[in-house]
Write a structure and sequence with these properties.
The complex is a heterodimer. Chain A is mainly β. Chain A has no helices and 11 strands. Chain B is mainly β.
Chain lengths: 111, 115
């Protein structure tokens, strides 16, 4: 019940295309859903986050879509660029600062 | 602020040796986390501290692993004795607790190779 399931494991998208990464959870007590971005040789860094009282949050080319009834949320990267190539992690928490992490998605943007 | 500082960045050791990883969190942060990342298991939380006190160490894989936080600006993760399956990247992260969730800031990691 504490798991966050992330898919796909890897994703290849052409430059300019839309990248979509999906996550699902079971614990309805989760109240904060961040996405972290990790470049090779670096630690993860917060990209964007959402609370369950909104269905969508957009920051530049990055959008989180949240479906509370389905217990799913997804990251959309519009106009994907080679610089977006990284590993993306979804996560969830009940506010105790302890994140429950997805398994990660390795995204490759082909020029 | 310099961010979360970890040392060493790379460590190569032989099986059976003691390994000590170090972390300096961001000043003022009261939560500190130790993670391990491998291809097979992804990002795993090993232990976290609040105000220098260990809160949850259920992720520590074995008694060979131990972590301490003697003060607000320093933490260590020790593996003794080390084994080849401990090879991974170990991250330290810190955050400021409060009424609402705050971003975890990660260090650059320590890549550990146990031969």
């Amino acid at each position: 019940q504490q798991q966050v399931k992330q898919s796909p494991q890897s994703l290849i998208v052409q430059k300019g295309g839309i990248s979509i990464i999906n996550c699902a959870y079971e614990n309805t007590a989760f109240d904060y859903f961040p996405w972290y971005q990790q470049f090779p040789g670096k630690g993860p860094a917060l990209l964007i986050a959402i609370r369950p009282d909104v269905s969508e949050k957009k920051e530049g080319r990055f959008t989180i879509s949240f479906n509370k009834s389905a217990k799913q949320f997804s990251l959309h990267i519009m106009d994907s660029q080679p610089g977006d190539s990284a590993t993306y992690f979804c996560a969830a928490t009940t506010g105790w600062n302890q994140l429950i992490w997805g398994a990660g998605t390795k995204l490759i943007i082909k020029p | 602020d310099a961010g979360v500082i970890q040392s060493p960045r790379h460590e190569v050791t032989e099986m059976g040796q003691e390994v000590t990883l170090r972390c300096k969190p961001i000043s003022g942060h009261d939560y500190l986390f130790w993670y391990r990342q491998t291809m097979m298991r992804g990002l795993e939380l090993l232990i976290y501290f609040n105000n220098n006190v260990p809160i949850d160490d259920s992720g520590m894989p074995e008694d060979r692993f131990s972590a301490k936080m003697p003060n607000a600006s320093f933490s260590t993760l020790k593996i003794q004795p080390s084994e080849p399956r401990d090879s991974a990247v170990y991250f330290c992260a810190s955050t400021l607790g409060g009424a609402s969730y705050n971003e975890q800031f990660f260090g650059p990691g320590t890549r550990l190779t146990v031969l």
